[in-house]
Design brief:
heterodimer; A: mainly alpha; MetI-like fold; 10 helices; 0% strand; globular; B: alpha/beta; six-stranded mixed sheet; four-stranded antiparallel sheet; 32% helix
Chain lengths: 253, 260
């Protein structure tokens, strides 16, 4: 391992370690109640003792987030293609998209719950709603920022509109699509948790609320940390997909 | 002023005129009544100051934009849209960062649905000629500016074009790389016999490369001089320092209005 990679691993870990130490020291020194703020060690013990429970509750939240995200990709990208290539569709759909995005998702959650019930469908719908917008906007931006020189080249070669789209416009938009997807996947987790907060029978959000109401703060914090880890893992998965699908982005750096 | 008579000419530019609409004021006249002929196999350079409209003329020749008046005829066809047997290279290499070097060279063949094994071998051969053997699988982001232009040159040549159109292709390169690229272009032209229409604002480059140079005035561009270079091929770097060469540069400089 080179000094550079060592440094890139060591410093972030050092930062986290310092915060954890200060936190632990603070709760000890001032004898803070475990209900108000459990120490990192309390949270760690709770995570180990309730590992099975946490894993079981992670699964539904994971599925809600991933399905919602996947649906946002499957619907969002084709919609962005329409918006980016048709002036009429752009003018028609964009205001609706922006209006939809302006509705606070927390406020819409109870209505979604009435429509879809307490099961996975309502969480999936909320995860989809929050993940959808960044994917559409970033994809549409990417599709419209194709370098003019490449479009001119394609025209000089008499490429068909379909060839221009598949061979020039879409690959040129990939970096934009992935940056939208990275934002979207972390938002999808938030959407799923909002759904669980408003009404659910399982999931990490549900567990967090339950633990909180039972004054089991260590477990509530453990659920919170597992939620963050879920977000990080999903983000990393999208980043990995980007590395695999865009090998040229690493080249020459 | 114009070259040989119309009969038998490979390319004919006849009273080509192009205006652009402007938000304020009247139309902007980019080029005005440009006429000259291009013989088959000739390397003809359009030389002129920046913004004089020589790129506009090249784009009209490429079929990318239409002339407001007048006409361009290449190889017996009036050019009104891009032609299948033209190759084009721009000032920026315009490589696709997501394609490997060989993938970029093969792009025209893919568009033409002629991406055969033979095409791939030809691409490899061209890359070897321009000194990029071993870089076939590299991405453009890993190459220097000069190497990227070499790839762009291979891409322009992959489908054996009858006419190669080049718009200041070496303009963004440093002086030494630029001279190397000029020799490379002359070398390739000698091997393929392709007719080349080349745009530049460098007097030395124009004289060094060309059979003939059409010198453009400032906008609106008119033909200020038509120089038959007459220096023998193969051109060698030493020729740049010969008195004949300097005389031709001086003549071009006078036509451009920068020398007396």
């Amino acid at each position: 391992m080179s000094w550079r990679t060592l440094r890139h691993t060591a410093y972030p870990l050092l930062g986290v370690a310092v915060i954890l130490l200060l936190w632990q020291g603070y709760t000890r020194a001032f004898a803070v109640s475990r209900i108000v703020l459990p120490s990192p060690s309390d949270i760690l013990f709770a995570s180990i003792a309730r590992y099975d429970l946490l894993m079981r509750e992670t699964w539904p939240t994971f599925l809600e987030s991933v399905y919602g995200f996947a649906l946002a990709v499957v619907i969002g990208i084709p919609l962005a293609v329409c918006v980016a290539n048709s002036r009429a569709l752009n003018l028609t759909l964009y205001p609706i998209l922006v209006a939809t995005q302006s509705v606070p998702k927390v406020a819409i959650a109870p209505i979604i719950l009435v429509w879809f019930g307490l099961g996975i469908e309502s969480k999936l719908a909320l995860a989809f709603l929050v993940a959808f917008f960044p994917i559409v906007v970033d994809t549409a931006t990417g599709l419209r920022s194709t370098p003019a020189g490449l479009l001119e080249l394609a025209r000089a070669l008499r490429a068909s509109p379909f060839q221009v789209f598949t061979k020039v416009q879409f690959p040129a938009a990939l970096p934009f699509i992935f940056s939208g997807a990275k934002v979207a996947v972390t938002l999808a987790v938030i959407g799923a948790v909002i759904g669980e907060f408003v009404g659910s029978v399982n999931g990490l959000g549900n567990l967090l609320l339950t633990a909180n109401s039972q004054l089991d703060s260590a477990l509530a914090w453990a659920a919170l940390i597992w939620l963050s880890m879920l977000g990080i893992v999903l983000f990393a998965a999208v980043a990995l997909a980007q590395r695999l699908l865009m090998p040229w982005a690493q080249a020459g750096q | 002023m114009s070259g040989s008579s119309a009969a038998g000419a490979f390319g004919r530019f006849k009273d080509v005129h192009r205006e652009f609409a402007r938000a304020h004021g009247g139309p902007l006249v980019a080029i005005e009544r440009i006429s000259f002929d291009v013989r088959e196999g000739m390397l003809l350079t359009l030389l002129g100051p920046s913004g004089c409209g020589k790129t506009t003329l090249l784009k009209i020749a490429a079929g990318l934009i239409r002339a407001t008046r007048g006409m361009v005829e290449i190889n017996g066809t009036e050019v009104t849209e891009p032609q299948p047997d033209f190759g084009i290279a721009f000032q920026h290499s315009n490589l696709m960062p997501w394609r490997t070097v060989v993938g970029n060279v093969l792009f025209p063949m893919e568009i033409r649905r002629e991406n055969s094994r033979a095409a791939r071998e030809r691409a490899m051969g061209l890359l070897a000629v321009v000194g990029l053997g071993g870089f076939e699988q590299a991405y453009p982001g890993e190459l220097s500016g000069g190497m990227q232009q070499r790839v762009a040159l291979c891409r322009a040549l992959i489908h054996r074009p009858k006419l190669l159109l080049m718009d200041e292709p070496f303009g963004a390169l440093d002086e030494l790389t630029r001279m190397e690229m000029q020799d490379l272009l002359l070398d390739i032209r000698a091997k393929t016999g392709t007719t080349v229409l080349f745009v530049t604002h460098s007097i030395g480059e124009a004289i060094y490369l060309s059979d003939a140079v059409v010198v453009f005035s400032k906008r609106p561009a008119v033909v200020a001089d038509h120089i038959d270079v007459g220096l023998p091929y193969p051109r060698t770097p030493e020729m740049r320092y010969r008195p004949e060469f300097t005389r031709l540069e001086h003549r071009a400089g006078r036509a451009l209005g920068i020398a007396r």
